[in-house]
Amino acid sequence: MTLQFDPQDIDRFKANIRGIPGYPSGEELPIRAMVFEPDALARLPGLLALAGVTPDKQLSVVMDHTPMAREGKELKPLVLEVLKNAGWQPEVIWLEPDSTGQVHTDFSQINCVKARLQPNSAVLSIGSGTVTDIAKHACHVYQQEQQISSLPFVVYQTANSVSAYTSNMAPTFVDGVKRTLPSRYPDVLVCDLKTLRDAPQAMTVAGVGDLLAAFGSYADWWLAHRLGMDSTYSEFAQTLMGPLDDIFLEHAEGIKAGTLESTSVLAKLIALAGIAMSLSHATAPLSGYEHVISHVLDLIAERTPRPLAQHGTQVALATLLTTNAYQIFFDEFEPAEINLERCYPTEAQMRARIDEAFRSLDPSGRVAAECWSDYKIKLESWHAHRADFEEALRDWPVIRDRLRTLAKPPEITARILHAISSPARFEDLTPAPAEAEVEFAFKNAPLIRHRFTLGDMFVFLQWDQEALWTQASKNL
Known about the structure:
- By secondary structure, the chain is an alpha/beta fold.
- Helix content is about 50%, strand content about 10%.
- Helix 10 runs parallel beside helix 18 (about 410-420) and helix 13 (about 310-330) packs antiparallel against helix 18 (about 410-420).
- The radius of gyration is 22 Å and the shape is globular.
């Protein structure tokens, strides 16, 4: 199966996606090139030039200390050698790990990179999602502070792991809570297929998992739209991405085996995901209930402290929970049994619930305060759109049928995960969260941000959380 919208030919790609319903009128995708080739590394000097990087500019190369290999050779020295042979004098900005042994996207890292930039700088990131997000957001903040319009930024992607590479947003820890901040696009994306093929299999599996979020997030986004909670909804992302279930089932064996063809398809899907969210002006197309569950698990890990599990794999397992929850909702929700007055808690009630939920993680109250600052926006909107909810209760059979077309059965996610030899249970993650932590994340995920998902329906409907967890987590 070929992709309907192939990002390799950038000019044709841009022309074609402008015709998709929901494409933002008058908006131009600023990425100059996306290259998906077995030996794209050899083209790196020319691609830097395409981005406006010349040897007389300061070229800051942002990377961490994670060992990486390409065809049996150390990748990072190899890339630096290619640059030096072409006339550049790259200045490496090393990202140092914290006490967990990992590098996380937070302002301490972002500010360290930003402090090394100059008005004539150009930046090349060599890494996966975290390195990319730190580098691009440092560029973004620096441009804003210095009021400069151009700071060339090129991404050398080292794993098919997340959708950060083409996104103009950056998930960043703020007071321990992940927030998605406006950032910037790269000028050029370099996907050297041999590099991606030789990345650890766990990262490739995570890349598939991150995209499987669509099996629940499309439904979450439409539900929020139908209830008046999100005016940004469009089907642009779904059209751009194509039938992910069919694509993954066709390429699962190739992804597992590391064929260059399937490596390329996955890299292109990951690139499309970042573009889909950016041009939708929201992460909602590919980030719903499953992502906030993952964010709470990350919050727990941060507070422990311990390293974070692979983001995409954690998201995929959360998707099994949320798509299970959708099936439960379809089967058991009875609008006639709803007491409307009980569906509208006060600010005082929800603030107390958030304070209580997160006190054990952070006695100082900073985490709860950060969660409340975002959650209260959702609560106010929920009250303001009561009429939309009342109308939805009357139209539930129609709404349920529409949601069924968007929320994929959990069996499809499980089948794809099995086909690529992905972890199938939370206990298989590295490091593995405790079952009680996963349960906490499932129940409290709706409380951390303003995005409306199925999880919020369970909160506002005062669904029996214990029974829901028992049903949704069966076999997980």
